[in-house]
Amino acid sequence: MRFGITTHRPPVLAALVAFTLSLTACSAGDLGSSGDEGELTLTFLVPTGPDSLPVGEQLAQDFMEANPDVEITVEARPGGAEGDNVVKTRLATGDMADVFQYNTGSLFQAINPGQNLVPLTDEGWTGGLDDLFAPTVTADDEVYGAPFGSNMGGGVLYNRQVYADLGLEVPTTWDAFMANNEAISDAGIAPVIQTYQDTWTSQLFVLADFHNVEAEEPGFAERYTANDAKYATTPAALRGFQHLQDTHDAGYLNEDFASATYEDGLRMIGEGEGAHYPMLTNAITPVVEAVPAAEDDMGFFALPGEDAAMNGLTAWSPGGVYIPTTTEGEKLEASKRFLAFIASPAGCESISRAQTPSGPYPVEGCELPGDVPQAVVDTQSYFEDDAVTPALEFLTPVKGPALEQIAVEVGSGIRSAQSGAELYDEDVEKQAQQLGLDGW
To answer: Residue 126, SS3?
Structure first.
């Protein structure tokens, strides 16, 4: 899944070359090794990196153990823009793997699913996809993908020990959040961690605020797509940029915010050097890996808005797994079986063996493991309360590539919130015109 404007599910440094990893089923002894008569081989293309490749490997292994007539060869591609080019080139040349993982939402629409992908609407498992995920892999009323992971939330990771020591409560309004920041600052702790060395991390105050935007301005996504609404002229949307400015101007950021890296932020929130880190919940696992105590000491809350009664979560769907139209015959049927496995409780269990979920799974019947970190439990509560809105990128193709740089400028005091929003509106307009969208 691509996060925000220009980054994939963060933060994996993409390998510069692709490689192939062949997996053979542990239970394939009756059929012999790869290539033996009677055994069908599928190729499965996934991004390289610790948040994708192990999942692909585990899914392939577990499927093969239950389906010894099929062997799956896992191929790894780069991430980022280079990986996008690999996917689009292989689709265009008819050289795509039998099954492949790619983004959902607006970037899924950009690969022309009606032309390049096999529709799966009639497969029984599609009815078990949740209402957040299903639209992100749907085009012209056809469903094309199975979920490659769990849902994610965008909001604030916070150090529960700092909150306990200072007697603070989880805020449900921006004013309460800023009051907590003041108390934390008075205690000599950095209230808000920002890590602008990795520019993509600057975007959360804007992107994770979309639930609040939609709550205050219902239908904003549709008007935004039609060029009838702008960030700079919609007060609810402008607030995301204002939050960047306000936390900087109040002196609530860590002193090294300009040079700190994502890895620094993970360590700081885990150890309590900072109290809040605006971030996606897929950061929970690397925080716990870096600071094991964070499994209990770190929590998560949705980005607070103006009205506590409307408090809720901006959510990101996982990436999707797709079948290209070049997959035919027996391979097509085997590929459909593989996607049915992925979109089942057994598939969710397989994914959980490879990585800790970052939120609830978008598949009916799937449950989280009983030992997930507290921050994941906090994330799940918003889904249980039905207080969730999809991130804007899943509701519109209108995107601009410069948000992370603009957010750094606003969050560093270089540019005002109003100026940043106006500049982003200009950036978005260029992209919409390139896409040929109506009204632009």
So the answer is: helix
